[in-house]
Amino acid sequence: MSAAERLDAARTALLLFDLLEGHVNRDAESRARFAPVIESAGRVLAAARKAGCMVAYAKADHRADRSTSARTVRDTDNRLRPLAPGAHDGPLLTGGTQETEVVEALAPLAGDLIVPKHRWSAFHGTYLDLALRTRSVNTIVLCGGSTDVGIASTAFAARDLDYNLVIVSDACTSPEADNHDQLIRRVFPRMSRVRTTEQVLSMWP
């Protein structure tokens, strides 16, 4: 492996995105879909901790009254189901509830960064960029769900903020497998290094 491919632990952060009880354990189908993702993310997390990397968690933090939630006019919800005029997406994960807790297998430690968010991107309206720059981080290893919603939005934002990105392909997921595959194969390589868990594990010294 070339020196350029290796991750500098002092300047790298692992960002785990929305790997929360309310998403992962919503139903049997979600649990089955997330199971390999949680396993892969856990391996990356262990390697990041061993290397001494900064670890951050982006997590939904919506108000129960939806006063901080997007109310844009659009054709469908996130899963391409038609929305009636004036309608909004279904129930969101409300901050402070069990649903917005990180799943136990990936539980944060006291020194980790917790980033509450109110939009798809982990950067929009949060202190993530400030916290990363304070630590002189220039590279983000990104995993979580959904690939075509929060992961994509965060990746575009990170690119526009000039961060180097490593997206862990088998530690991301979407309910629409074709959306995940399209982004992993045709979109993310334009702004990041797309790597498997095994490849990422070999990138830390």
What order do the helices and strands come in, and which of them pair?
Elements: E1 12-17, H1 21-24, H2 28-51, E2 54-60, E3 113-117, H3 128-134, E4 139-145, H4 147-160, E5 164-173, H5 177-187, E6 193-195, H6 197-201
Strand content: 15-25%
Helical residue percent band: 25-40%
Q: What's the rounded overall pLDDT mean?
A: 92
- Structural category: alpha/beta
- At the fourth level of CATH, the homologous superfamily is Isochorismatase-like
Q: How many helix segments?
A: 6
Largest sheet, spatial ordering of strands: 3-2-1-4-5-6
Q: What gross morphology would you assign?
A: globular
CATH class annotation? Alpha Beta
Please state the second-level CATH architecture. Answer: 3-Layer(aba) Sandwich
- Using DSSP, what is the number of strands? 6
Succession of helices and strands: EHHEEHEHEHEH
How many separate domains?
Answer: 1
CATH topology: Rossmann fold
Low-confidence stretches: none
Amino- and carboxy-terminal Cα gap: 11 Å
Major beta-sheet overview: 6 strands, parallel
Over all CA atoms, what is the radius of gyration? 16 Å
